[in-house]
Amino acid sequence: MSPRSIRSALAQSSDGPLLCVPLGILARYAPHVKMLAFSLVARSCSPLGAGILTAALCLTGGGAQARPVAIGGSVQAASVGTRWLGGTVGGTEMLPVWALPRLGVEVRNDPNDLRLKWGGRELRYAPGRGWRALGLTLGAPLPAPQLEGQSLYAPLAALRLLGVPLEADAPDLLAFAAPLRVPGETLPPSPDLPPSPEMSASPVVPARVPVGAVTTAPSPARTSLLPLPDFGVRLQTVRVGRELHRQIETQRVVLELSAPVAPEVQRTANGLAVRLPGVGTVTGEQTLASGDTLSLDMDAGGSWVRLQTGGGRSEVFTLSDPPRVVIDTVTQLGREVPPPINPQALPAGVTYRQLGGLHLLSFDPARFQAQVVSAPRGTFAEVAQLVAQVGGTAGVNASYFDPASALPVDLVVSGGLMTAASLEKRAAVGLLPGGGLVFGYPRPRYRLRGPFGEVQANAVTSRARPDWLTAFVGDGHTETGAAGFLTLHVRLGGRTVERAVSGPHVPPVGTLTLTFDPDRFAQLPRQAGEALEVSLDWRSDDAPWPLTRDALSAGPLLVQAGRAVTDPRREGFNTAASIWRPTRQVALGLWKGQPTVAYLEHGTPEAFAAALVGAGLSDALRLDSGSSASAYLTGGYGNLGGYLNTVWGRPVPNAIVFVPKLTGAVSEGR
């Protein structure tokens, strides 16, 4: 189709722009949703005429249209046209970033981290740093991108610089060649920039459908009343996105309208029906890539959009600029993998917030008590199992461990007993009995006092060492002691020896033991009943550590007093190793005095710290990163992200679990 034919078709069309559009992606509102294309063939005539509805999820912006855009011979919707924006005289001609994948351009649609990639060429833009070029020479300065309404616009000059092929560049038309490939997903964050704590400078805030508008009813009967009214509002485009994380499927259906309407939602046995009063549409039916069935019908009152989801959980809301009705459906395809956290079904006292790739779960300290929960020594458990072990509500994996032995490699204190010794260089978090948290750098040791004076244990281990006084907390199956060694059974805070055992043996679960060579430590007691006091000496004054009953070290300390304080040298982290790579991150911190579990979809520790400061956390400690970094809440795992390959983390030996306090009111849901 020639440029002249394209302009002629655009001028003669009485029903608005053609609806045949190629694939698109949404990067700002739902960066994890990949876009797939499908076609709905019309079954009957409507005010729009017979046509094709093509799937492609996108966001559009306002502004006066400068030139219509054609791709591969097809004129696009008016929202895809160029705009003259910016502060220069006359402005700069720009295109909406959300539409650029239709041209074959890979994008990251983020005002704080814009990426445009065409083959081996790439342009990046960040406020304060301007444009950066990879694989090409920037040359003359490019105008800055512009945020118009809810859409980000990039200068047309950027596409010319990238080499995106043009078929026509006329005063009344901008025509691009059809791309050989349409990108299927958004680009990840720029590796040299921390992720923004906000999704965008002007985030999209969905307007929820009022509860009163949602009812449960049989699927409305389909009607075919003729003649049908010529409705003033039209359903212009249906767009669909689908993302699959193992057994969790997320699907988004976007109904783009010519004017705002108030949808009416009816829940059915196998899905839902959305009534669009006063809206005309092309009627048809299509099986989506998910297997769900989407159908469009009209009657004298407007249109019906029916979605048969087969058990998926759907939410309906509206967006503006342009007017849209959105149906989000999450389906659990297999019961062996739990669903993601449902922000709409939180227990009382739990608050969920999402700021771009940062997710926050805050817990009311009046309702919840945090505690350290461990799997049996030398074994792993899923976070959900550790939560269920103590009747908890939520949990997050915590502390670093040796994958071969499943033993922690740094401080773990549970119920007042130190079960793993501290490396004495990395930051720790302490869990206070009242529900609060403390952060700092303690160096705890077991300290013994008696008529002999004072002495401290050298290590926490089941292995007896001739020159060491070793402590160990029994687990009911691990042997401690050795031939020629004496082991004392004591109670933390007690005043006498409860039992003395010679040689190897297996101490009972939760029993604190002290093993030594009697010749090396001749001053220590030898028999039960002798005087001996044992305490956990925290050896630190940076926080009220003696008040904590549970604690663990991880690191690095990310935030302190509202400032990013990440210091890998102080804590002995190798920034060249995988533990410092950009990946999934998880932390525990304080937000407005509430203990808060935070997880970042992708980024470095420094980027994580910056995002937490931007979110308003006063203190925060990283607990883990990579595949084992996972948070869990009431049946769902909260580590889904746009760049993750797993739905949940691998099993771990320790977790911090939030357990409801026995107040009689904390178990009620909302």
Task: Give your account of this protein's structure.
There is one protein chain. By secondary structure, this protein is mainly beta. The protein is 6% helix and 38% strand. The protein contains 5 helices and 53 strands. It has a 7-stranded antiparallel beta sheet with strand order 27-28-49-48-50-46-47, covered by helices on one side. A 6-stranded mixed beta sheet has the order 15-25-26-18-17-21, with no helix packed on it. The longest helix is centred in the C-terminal third of the chain and has 11 residues, at 605-615. It is elongated. It starts with a helix and ends in a 10-residue tail after the last strand. Mean pLDDT is 80; it is low at 1-64, 196-226, 640-648 and 664-670. This is Phosphodiester glycosidase domain-containing protein. It comes from Deinococcus wulumuqiensis.
Number of E strands: 53
Low-pLDDT sequence parts: 1-64, 196-226, 640-648, 664-670
Q: Distance between termini?
A: 58 Å
Please bin the fraction of helical residues: under 10%
| Order of strands, widest sheet | 27-28-49-48-50-46-47
Average pLDDT works out at: 80
How big a fraction of the residues is strand? 35-45%
Broad shape: elongated
Structural class: mainly beta
Radius of gyration: 31 Å
The biggest beta sheet is recorded as: 7 strands, antiparallel
Note the total helix count.
5
